[in-house]
Amino acid sequence: MSQFATTSEDLPRSYPNLVAAYGFLPNLFRAQSDLPHAIEAEQRLIEVVVVRSGRLSREEKDAILFGVATVRGSDYCRALFEHSLPAVSHRNSALLDFSLKLAKHGPRVSGRDVASLQNCGFNDRAILEAIVTTGVALMLCTLADGLQPELDLELGLVVPGEPPDLPEPSDWPKASEAHLLLPYSTADSTALAVLREQFGFVPNLYRLQSAVPELLEPEVALLESVLFAESGLNRVQKECVLLAISAANLNTYCATLHSQVLSILGVPPEESDRIVANQSEDQRESGVSGVDQVLVEQCRKLASLPGLSNQWFERERLRSEGFTEPQIIEAIVVAGLANLLNTLQAGVGAVPDFPPRRVFGPKDLYRFPGDSRPISNATPSEDPDAALVARVQKGETDVFEELVRRHSRRVFGALAGLVGNLDDARDATQDVFLKAFENIGRFQGRSKFSTWLTSIAINTGTELLRQRKPSESLAEMEDDEGFRPRQVQRWEENPEQQCSASQMNRLVREAVLRLPEKYRVAVLLRDINQLSTEEAAAALELSIPALKARVLRGRLMLRESLAPHFIRQEKTDA
Amino acid sequence: MLSCADFLAEFGDYIDNVASPDLRAHLEEHLHECKTCRVIVDSTRKTIQIVTESGCFTLPAHAVDAIVSEVMARVHQKST
Lengths: 574, 80
Description:
Mean pLDDT of chain A: 83
Strand content of chain A: under 5%
Shape of chain B: elongated
Structural class of chain B: mainly alpha
Helix content of chain B: over 70%
Distance between the termini of chain B: 67 Å
Oligomer: heterodimer
Order of helices and strands of chain B: HHHH
Helix content of chain A: 55-70%
Low-confidence stretches of chain B: none
Distance between the termini of chain A: 75 Å
Low-confidence stretches of chain A: 1-5, 280-286, 368-381
Strand content of chain B: under 5%
Structural class of chain A: mainly alpha
Shape of chain A: globular
Radius of gyration of chain B: 22 Å
Largest interface: A-B, 55 and 41 residues
């Protein structure tokens, strides 16, 4: 919540360290002006972690920041970090490779990765600086993803970056193990006192950093401003966001810690388990309110692990649930904090403070059939659009036209089936391609481009539906869990001959539009857009069994709607 | 033998011709005995065919060019 009135002209004077760091006050921070304490805490963290030279120079840290923004596909942050990047980059290959692996494959960073850096001559203090810098980079990328600030005039035009070719790690760390051997500090400090007061103990994540108070203190100050302070979102809501993102990032330590805190706050462990398992759809069984489920569902999309990167945080969805602008901004800031903490833990390897209820492992990597799943034996050439996409990513804007031409029918078909109104579908089709163009830097080729595009279309169409008044749409069929076919009379042999093409078109159209949304989308993708089961599941971020169940239910509901027009009239059954 | 409820929960893969041989055998055993489920399978297949071939949400060919032009104009506007 806004603590004091600050005009936009005054803002730079309020945050001199940010102005010193970037030469101006970037829109990324102006966009948080409703949360001055959060900006102050971010300013302190950036000043200490990024600007001040420690074991690593500012140039080395800027190279990490820029590399992480490229991996994350954040064009805004690439422009921001490039702005301060020196002409001759101090790229230290081993250090940068470590940071990029941490940013992209956090849960698979192991003690062996840290030992490799130690063998290159980096001590634990320098490695900790690289870890915290990576965490700060991911936090800022999260803020940019959620807040979508306008590119500052001071920053140059951004050419979408080509994601670095990072090899998929083949192993998973065997057990939680501390990667760094910094001594625990026994000296008391304000930061440790705050942690003891809030948690009742000092979590291992912070104990491991206690020997470096200059890093620990701004981290704890951020916790105080964003998590502990009373504000627009309550602590349970914030902890739910932290838990959901930790689970999406497959971070056993942080998921365990936040489940424990939620338990202390009165949330039963089973509800935390449901958040971890991403069972947000079944709101009736969960004690977390529907509104908060929407908050969790949206914030989960801001997780740093790329599993959900084909879905975007939708501010409008939260507005429609009654969240205020300061609350939405706060949710984004909490999501940024979650990614920072997850990255710190994955880097330092803190051991869980409590027995974990769920230990994440390699089997969890591909829970979502979206772009996190490597296509088996995949090479970019297997996606017929891969070459064109790569050219657009390198800045050949005109090449995008061919992608629009190839896919406009498919995108339109999905949208028309979702929203019903063909004019709206045409407008939304344009919006989908524009969103795809703006975010093409984030597309990493782990799914087909067409699948990625379809998921954007579904999100766009769904949002459009939510903005509409219910009276404008056809009444949906009842979403009855106990649905059973009632029409069990035989159909005509050739039902398509029972009416004209235009009549058939109208019948099907109305029947499809009456389906409950979740079944409608599934049927549209499978039977009208002709996607494979795997592609449709990927586009909807569903498991394959869940997709199949929805398709079957949708088809049976359609059959029920169409049956009165096609049942055989004469009684000829023997 | 399967009940009708079990059959209706499982016949999605059968309709799509991707059921495992074991499942297919179980389902066909039920179908052999159950006229109601035979009607449901037949009419569901016809439903899929009707929906797939209806072309009810197809973008007319002439509209593709208009969309391409509009999108590229907005893309160029964004890029400059």
